[in-house]
Amino acid sequence: MTPAATAPGADAGSDLLARARAALEAVTDPELPFLTIADMGILRAVRETADGVIEVDITPTYSGCPATDMIRLDVEVALAKAGIARTAVRNVLLPAWTTDWLSADARAKLLANGIAPPVKPSGKRALFASEAVTCPHCGGHDTERVSEFGSTACKAQYRCSSCREPFEYFKCI
Amino acid sequence: MPAPTDAHFRYVLRLADSALILGHRLSEWSGRAPTLEEDIALCNISLDLIGQARSLYAHAAELEGKGRSEDDLAFLRDADEYLNLQIVERPNKDFAVTMARQLAYATFAELAWGALKASKDEVIAGVAAKAEKECAYHVRHAAEWVIRLGDGTAESHSRMQAGLDDIWMYTGELFEVDAVDEAMIAAGIGIDPRDLQAAWTAAMDEVVAEATLTKPTAGWMQTGGRRGLHTEHLGHLLAQMQVLQRVHPGAQW
Fold first, then answer.
1. What residues of chain B score a pLDDT lower than 50?
2. Which of A107, A113, B22, B179 has the greatest number of beta carbons closer than 10 A?
3. What is the topology classification, in CATH, of domain A15-91?
4. Whole-number Å distance between alpha carbons of B150 and B146
């Protein structure tokens, strides 16, 4: 759709913004493809500037998350496919991303995909406290941490002592 | 007193350089760590640090305003232009030495980033907010290993003690303040690391005691990294880290 195709009198600006929002809803996290970047809280804002540029704010989950560059590219591609040519993707650091921003829907999807969602609000952690993580496979509570670092920056490795299955845990940050 | 803009550039560069050099050092464990889980953990920590450095280098390049990019700053400076703390360039040696270095640095970094969240420099404050949380994980990881090895077998205990002894003379530099710091503290951009020393000492003491180790006596402390004076190890590290950009300038993939 080009601006010329917009019906006279229609609010062309909000239409552009609506199309941008719709396109961005389909962008998923490359490491967790069942979650959108909106579910994840990575997509922070979508704006239209006075001169018709769509500005998108994204925030990294971890400083060195390699998916950040990929997500940026996916956002640009999604907007281009929607016929939106003038875009600016900004990487914002403040406020810092936290697992508290995961939507309820995102937590349910994590669980359905065998990844235990974060168990509690982020915050200052005690040096030797360990979290009670529920097994996403059998629902058992007798689980043990294998390593606080896993296949991606955001996940830890756990093992269930009831069903003996290993699983990943989306750690609180 | 350095010019305000130069002090700001150097302050950001010091933060970036320490994060990058330690990130690179830890990446040397990739494929060589004692267990698969440890390999993954050290690479994750390395990635956090390199990520912190990237945001800071991009910011430093802007502050400098001479057209250098984050890659230019990382790959095209020699050892005497690097302003990192000496502790982060120390060789990995064995796993115990690496864990002692991790404990000392990460404990400091978590406190420093926590304080830098209030920086008037928005990029520093933004990096700090994230880095503080990441470093909390790094501290816990290192503390668990120091305790496990210290309070382990006679062999692991003696090697963990040797690790702590190995890095101790590089911990004094963490709390130094010079004209660059003073200018940045006055501007509300930087922090006074001496304010963190009591908390750092208490945290280290807690882990050292739990690990049944003996805290090394404070003797001669090395200094100079933040002024560009380095141990011989930094040059070797840079040779490996920079070789591709030196041989193929501007290479991208």
1. none
2. B22
3. GMP Synthetase; Chain A, domain 3 (3.30.300)
4. 6
- CB contacts, 8 Å: A122 with chain B: 133
Count how many pairs of residues, chain A against chain B, have C-beta atoms within 8 Å.
88
Whether residue B132 contacts residue A173, with contact meaning beta carbons closer than 8 Å, is answered with no
Q: Which residues of A touch B135 (CB under 8 A)?
A: none
What would the pLDDT profile of A8-32 be if each residue is shown by its tens digit?
444 455 799 999 999 999 999 998 9
Q: pLDDT tens digits, residue range B197-208?
A: 999 999 999 999
**Residue whose entry in the numeric block shows the structure tokens 């710091």:** B181
The ipTM is 0.81
Looking at residue A130, its pLDDT comes to 64
Sheet holding A155-160, edge to edge: A115-116, A166-170, A155-160, A143-147
C-beta separation of A25 from A59 below 8 A = no
Residue type, B107: T
d(CA B190, CA B185): 5
Asked if residue A118 lies in contact with residue A172, where contact means CB atoms within 8 angstroms, the answer is: yes
**Cβ within 8 Å of A, B 193-252:** 203, 206-207
Rounded distance, CA B83 to CA B15, Å? 8
Q: In 3D, which of B48, B50, B59 has the Cα closest to residue B125?
A: B59
> In whole angstroms, what is the distance from residue B80 CA to residue A29 CA?
41
Annotated domain spans of chain A? 15-91, 114-170
Residues paired with A169 in a beta bridge: A116, A156
Which regions in chain A score pLDDT beneath 50? 1-11, 124-125
- State the pLDDT at residue B167: 97
Q: pLDDT at position A9, please?
A: 40
